[in-house]
Amino acid sequence: MTGRSAKKPTADASDWRGSFPALHQEINGHPLVYLDSAASSQQPAAVIAAVQTYQECSHANVHRGVHTLSHRATEAYESARDRIADFINASNRTEIVFTSGTTDSINLVAQSFCRPTLKPGDRIVISHLEHHSNIVPWQMLCEQTGAELVVASIDESGQVDVSEITDLLDERVKLFALAHVSNALGTVLPVKEIIGIAKTRGIPVLLDGAQAVPHLPVDVQDLDCDFYTFSGHKMFGPTGTGVLFGRESLLEAMPPYQGGGDMILEVSFEGTTYNDLPYKFEAGTPNIAGFVGLGAAVKYLQCIGMQRICQHEKELLEYMTMQLSEIQDIRLIGTAANKASVQSFMLADIHPHDVGTILDHQGVAIRTGHHCAMPVMEYFGIPGTARASLALYNTRDDVDALVAALHAAHKIFS
Ligand code: PMP
Q: Other CB atoms closer than 10 Å to residue 17's CB: what's the count?
């Protein structure tokens, strides 16, 4: 379907927008048009209220106390885990480890799953379009162990080549770590197909789902991945919250990542017995209020339904891509057939930071720069891009405002 003939997004999108207080303000004298949700999304009133109620009525430390507030805090924190397990269809709540974000989740897997057994000659495979958080932990791991980091290429559209990946996945590969959706290009990767190939060769797969979970229905059992990582602040929850889904048999066999409170059963100077899953990986007092908020964010998403959100954003992305492609001197970066929520671009020879600043003067918030994906920028031979990213609360009016602001920017520089 082309952007022009695309159906108008359902009227619901403007209802959804109404739930987000931050969207109802003026920036530089213009109504805010927020197109930077790939960096961090706004929070609905339900999330803000859940955190506030928790802070006002239920805050105490979790798991340890016998008093009522500690019980309430534990109940609120643990029910967020149940909700998230249900949301991504984990087979057991013990497979849901709370972390501080995608970066933390990936580092946990690198250090706890891979490091103890990795040796020179072994390989970790990633793709060329990864976020730095799915590159640098593997580089560090390879420096620590003498293993080799191998990078699967991308094409001009920003898609990976499944046949190249098939060739790369040999017996030397100890883990394949791949984005589900690219943050810089919006590409949706053929992860199910790739996991199927990896499985036949016994290679575990980690998916970086930071840009997928807010936009697509995710079912970890259907995907059959071994690890799945994502961040609360990109899915309408608070910052400092994240999730590592791990297959229970793998998590069981992994040593703890960090030592401290909550991850132990018993400590003596002779030795320590570790706690059960998932607490073995949750050392120290967690971000309790944050996870209460994340639980509320997931409830919000479940009430709308991920299928509806996905359909709305698909239509809106088609519309945005079509409208952007008609702007004079624009170069779209990231043109894969299967995409979600993101469009990167260059406008004439204007530096992306200048585009972003001019847009901000008109109330339009986009991201500019390398988007923590410098190898992608190097591949396209550019210093960075301007990136508009959508979430469930965006509408065609937002896209129209973006396009008008870009016309104004083009005029200023021509
Ligand atoms: N992976 C991807 C694809 C991302 O988009 C991001 C955030 N931009 C990250 C990882 C890192 O997420 P966080 O900073 O929340 O740990």
A: 20
Catalytic residue list: 372
Per DSSP (E only), the strands in 180-323 are 205-208, 227-231, 242-246, 264-268, 271-274
Q: What CA–CA distance (Å, rounded) separates 331 from 382?
A: 11
pLDDT tens digits, residue range 213-256? 999 999 999 999 999 999 999 999 999 999 999 999 999 999 99
Q: For the chain, give me the number of helices (H) and strands (E)?
A: 14, 17
Q: Is 186 in the pocket of ligand 1 (CB under 6 A)?
A: no
Q: Which CATH number fits domain 2-44+306-413: 3.10.350.10, 3.90.1150.10, 3.20.20.80, 3.40.50.1820?
A: 3.90.1150.10
DSSP 119: -
> Which atom of ligand 1 approaches the CA of 239 most closely?
15
Say if residues 27 and 363 touch (Cβ distance below 8 Å).
Answer: yes
Residue owning the nearest CA to atom 14 of ligand 1: 103
Q: Does the Cβ of 287 fall within 6 Å of ligand 1? A: no
Residue 314 tokens read as 């698909």
Query: Cα separations (Å) of 160 from 85, 157, 178?
Result: 29, 9, 10
Domain borders along the chain are: 2-44+306-413, 48-302
Which helix (DSSP H) or strand (DSSP E) does residue 373 occupy? none
Q: Determine the CATH number of domain 48-302.
A: 3.40.640.10
What is the model's pTM? 0.96
Is there a shared CATH topology between the 2-44+306-413 domain and the 48-302 domain? no
d(CA 312, CA 338): 15
Q: Are 208 and 100 a contacting pair, CB within 8 Å?
A: no
Residues of the chain with pLDDT under 70: 1-12
Q: What distance in angstroms lies between residue 233's CA and the mean position of ligand 1's atoms?
A: 10
Residue with CA at minimum distance from ligand 1 atom 6: 210
Q: How far is C-alpha 40 from the geometric centre of its chain's CA atoms?
A: 9
Within 10 angstroms of residue 122's Cβ, the number of other Cβ atoms is: 18
Rounded distance, CA 248 to CA 278, Å?
Answer: 9
Omega of the bond leading into 278 within 30 degrees of 0 (cis): yes
Per the document, the length of the chain is 414
In which element (H, E) is residue 358 found?
helix 352-361
